[in-house]
Hints:
The complex is a heterodimer.
Chain A: E1 2-4, H1 13-21, E2 26-27, E3 40-43, H2 57-68, E4 73-76, H3 78-81, E5 86-87, E6 90-94, E7 102-105, E8 114-119, E9 121-122, E10 137-142, E11 144-145, E12 152-158, E13 160-168, E14 171-174, H4 182-197
Parallel strand pairs in A: 1-2, 1-3, 3-4, 4-14, 5-7
Antiparallel strand pairs in A: 5-6, 7-11, 8-10, 9-12, 12-13, 13-14
Chain B: E1 5-13, E2 16-17, H1 32-42, E3 46-51, H2 59-70, E4 77-80, H3 86-94, E5 99-102, H4 104-108, H5 111-120, E6 125-133, E7 139-143, E8 148-153, H6 154-164, E9 168-173, H7 185-194, E10 199-202, H8 208-216, E11 222-225, H9 235-245
Parallel strand pairs in B: 1-3, 1-11, 3-4, 4-5, 5-6, 6-9, 9-10, 10-11
Antiparallel strand pairs in B: 1-2, 6-7, 7-8
Helix pairs in contact in B: 1-2, 6-7
Amino acid sequence: xxxxxxxxxxxxxxxxxxxxxxxxxxxxxxxxxxxxxxxxxxxxxxxxxxxxxxxxxxxxxxxxxxxxxxxxxxxxxxxxxxxxxxxxxxxxxxxxxxxxxxxxxxxxxxxxxxxxxxxxxxxxxxxxxxxxxxxxxxxxxxxxxxxxxxxxxxxxxxxxxxxxxxxxxxxxxxxxxxxxxxxxxxxxxxxxxxxxxxxxxxxxxx
Amino acid sequence: xxxxxxxxxxxxxxxxxxxxxxxxxxxxxxxxxxxxxxxxxxxxxxxxxxxxxxxxxxxxxxxxxxxxxxxxxxxxxxxxxxxxxxxxxxxxxxxxxxxxxxxxxxxxxxxxxxxxxxxxxxxxxxxxxxxxxxxxxxxxxxxxxxxxxxxxxxxxxxxxxxxxxxxxxxxxxxxxxxxxxxxxxxxxxxxxxxxxxxxxxxxxxxxxxxxxxxxxxxxxxxxxxxxxxxxxxxxxxxxxxxxxxxxxxxxx
Lengths: 206, 252
């Protein structure tokens, strides 16, 4: 069972529909104590990084506890940015710090926000993108972006190059919206669901 | 590279698509859910459901339509045409829309854009602007489906709407709408150059060249059309191939 965290950052109807379409079993915990013995965790979210303040210390402890048990975690859009140390969008709100680096605003030499379909430039093999073929585009809508680091498995270029897909151990993140990215997006969600079912789990922090 | 988007518009009244739909093999001609799946399979980048239902009593039909359209659709879905309040927007988003387009309601009450952006994020809030060229060369904004002049100017209103929280502009040329004589590139370029948010051009699509022109001369980020995509079942793919051949980035 996958826990889908609803912290009020946007509407989760589309994410729920897409998870159902790829055959995932999921629920939305009402309190951190309900996370318990899950097989996977999804942190979605759209909008301002400050919205992550709704994830209180109890939620953060519960989420990090799950990650410590090597349970796969997927952050989507704002949820991926939350995996990093923080964002210039809300200086006083901390990310989970599972990945090093801070999110920065997309340079204003291009229109901001970045809205629409853009290329995934795959930089190394990954479990999340195992069914993704070359030349695929996905749907983005965001104004801040995470830096390209060694956790990046695919980058996207708009104004500058930023992390589009990250993967380190069982921590995964996508800057785009897989639930709005047609068949390419569904295949990525399907891969995550399969990862949550895989009995052979690597160690998260190595 | 960020692709230019092609958006199909379904004009829906009481749950049925009302513009000339010529797909012959659909079991139910005019069924918006079947059309939406068809467009998704053809490679359309987004869909807009424009509710042209006249009466408030029929509003429930829109939510049912959105539920059915969005059930198996995994591309962005915008609803417009009857969003008059925060409650209307909430109902549409809960029913499966990803974005709501506000036109007359935003003109009447601009703070509605800000409240919706705070609640759902700017990416969910589209300001729909219907504009007509005035005698002085400026573009005047009209409300109530193009019936009511507002004395507001399109570029200035687009700027204000963006400042208030709108995440995209859906810009319709009243002069060109339904004419198939080409998008109003001058209007589109003026608005697109004035705001940092994406601009969707609408009104006047007739040929493949019209799309090329609005992406180049008009500086549009996306282009919306209804009947032009109904010409044949391969219209979307053929148009995208044409655009790519013209050097315009599209999602194939």
